[in-house]
């Protein structure tokens, strides 16, 4: 089974459990809608890749951890798109969850997916419970306060908004969780993997800023020009597109250089480079080559 | 330290951690506002009482589990009061979280408190990780889908709403989590404690229905008459107040009779009876005596 199949299978297991028994059907449908079909599944693929590079024996359990990361991501998108935040009508090329199911079910779907993330991990590591304290704490730190996704969103309600702090919490935290949880799920030490997550999170945010300035809604499946419209910090707006692309490339190189010694280090380095290039519009890569 | 001090201390630890480092101050304030001052803390006190009755050695860890139950409750209230659900202006005698901090911070505070619940448990049981799989699964089941608080709220978006199913998920699930997690935290088997939680959850919901019909906003710190106004299922509306009070008393007796053999069974039975009587307006107790 390749990585994406492991991840989709873990997400399918979680969604099926959430829809079991007497689950309210419309909420179950909203959850499924929020999860499938996915975007690029960048964070869970990073998590699983780190786990594999660390020599994980049980890729099913690692995929559950990767799926938990993706569930938190899907939850944050469902809430982020709500009228009281971005009021985004579309996401991944289709109506956002609240546009399709209403605000109430979008709030509840997000809540339920946060819970599903922790439940999936508890289930997958039942036979290795000593891994649960660091795993639960790693994904909790990425999702909540004081420095996870909720914190990142919370900075938007502050009068002063510092770009790096905001983006580290809103985007970077889940990349850090992906690399650290990937290592932990393989039974390795998580701490040395923080730097890779931090670097890739920052690189990804800059790529996202660039796409918001330089792409079309058709190419990225969501509205563009939102950062300027909403007055949000953006590296592409602050630096200009060309310098932002150069920064992205530097950050990616540094992230790759930070990969700790492990059985699959060379393979992982190649994977990370391929992935980073995939997220940018082709014409930008050519321009900055 | 008595029970309520243990619980407040666990909640204080969680709130302080959420507000640490560079946490966005307004979100940290919204979280604190949602947790303190508490209501009757019925669910965490039940959790801690069961733990004590089971002979728990480490009441601090049990209090963390109890605090997690309360955090999930506070999260559900913050989201439940949102304009897209009940649109409640007040809660516990003060403005609701969204009325005081706005919708965005109320959504995020709820999200963060769900995460804090799992984090608190992972931290408290780091030295007994074998207890984490059942504990995480117990509180996940109570909070999410297919039969937890989110599911209970989700039933409100279904065309047909069956009272018992709805209330079992929306209210009963957290009472079941309180009794089961209390036993688990003491190292005991959780399953025999489900029935106590189910019975008390149902009794509490009926008491709540009765108060919504027969109390004043001043007495219970939130608006009354909401069930009728919102067309929600209510035992007091369906049966009339006197028969609802009689049902409440019968359910409480049955719940008490279900308490499994444990070192503190007699003490726990007395506690449960005292607690149940506390939640009803005095004149109703006299009327139905």
From TrEMBL, chains A, B:
<keyword id="KW-0479">Metal-binding</keyword>
<dbReference type="InterPro" id="IPR033749">
    <property type="entry name" value="Polyprenyl_synt_CS"/>
</dbReference>
<dbReference type="GO" id="GO:0004659">
    <property type="term" value="F:prenyltransferase activity"/>
</dbReference>
<keyword id="KW-0460">Magnesium</keyword>
<keyword id="KW-0808">Transferase</keyword>
<dbReference type="InterPro" id="IPR000092">
    <property type="entry name" value="Polyprenyl_synt"/>
</dbReference>
<keyword id="KW-0414">Isoprene biosynthesis</keyword>
<dbReference type="InterPro" id="IPR008949">
    <property type="entry name" value="Isoprenoid_synthase_dom_sf"/>
</dbReference>
<dbReference type="GO" id="GO:0008299">
    <property type="term" value="P:isoprenoid biosynthetic process"/>
</dbReference>
<dbReference type="Pfam" id="PF00348">
    <property type="entry name" value="polyprenyl_synt"/>
</dbReference>
<protein>
    <submittedName>
        <fullName>Polyprenyl synthetase</fullName>
    </submittedName>
</protein>
<dbReference type="GO" id="GO:0046872">
    <property type="term" value="F:metal ion binding"/>
</dbReference>
<comment type="similarity">
    <text>Belongs to the FPP/GGPP synthase family.</text>
</comment>
